[in-house]
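1st attempt posting a full record on here, be nice pls
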Amino acid sequence: MALDQLKPQDAQQSGSQAQEQIARVERFKVKEALAVALLEGHIEETNRKLHEWVGHMVSKRHGLRDALTDYVRGIMEVHQEGPRLQHMLLEETPMPERLHRVLLDAEQEAVSTMSGLLSLFPEVGPRDLRRSGYFVIHTVESLTHGFAAHQDQEIIEKEEFIAELVTMLEAYLTCKGRRQGEPAQ
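the predicted structure (as C-alpha cells):
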C-alpha cells in the first residue's frame, strides 16, 4: 500500500498494533526475569543442599550407600517444590546466556564437590573421580527431576525409587570395570 493511500484509521490501527507489540515484549521481559529468578533460586538451593550434605557426610563418616541415600533424598526434596514449574523452566524455557553460564558453573562446582567426597570412600577405587562425580551428579539430577515432575505417571514409590537409584550408583562406583587411565573400548 502506498503512503498516499493510507487513511487516518490505518495509522491509528498501526499505532495500536505497535502498542500491543510493545506490551507483548514488556510482558516477555517480565516473564523472562521471573524465570531467571526462579532458576537462580533453584540452582542456589541445589548447591546449598549439596554442600550441606557433604558437611554431614564428612562429619558423620557414613558408608558409601548411606551417603548416596542421603544425597538422593536431599535432591528429591529440592525437586518436590514446584516440580512441573522446574521442568518447564529447565527444559522448555529459552535460557539467557548469563543464566546458562550460572548453571554450568554450578554443575562444575557440584562435580568437583562430589569427586572430592567420593575420594573418601576406598570402595570407590582408583578411577577417574571427576568423571564419576559427573555421572553421579547428572544421573541424580536428571532422574530425581524426572521423577518429581511426572509423579502422576509413577510406576514406583518414592522410597523404592531412592533405593533403586542408590543401588545403581553404588554398583557403578564400586564396579571392577574400567579404571583411571584405561582407554574406552
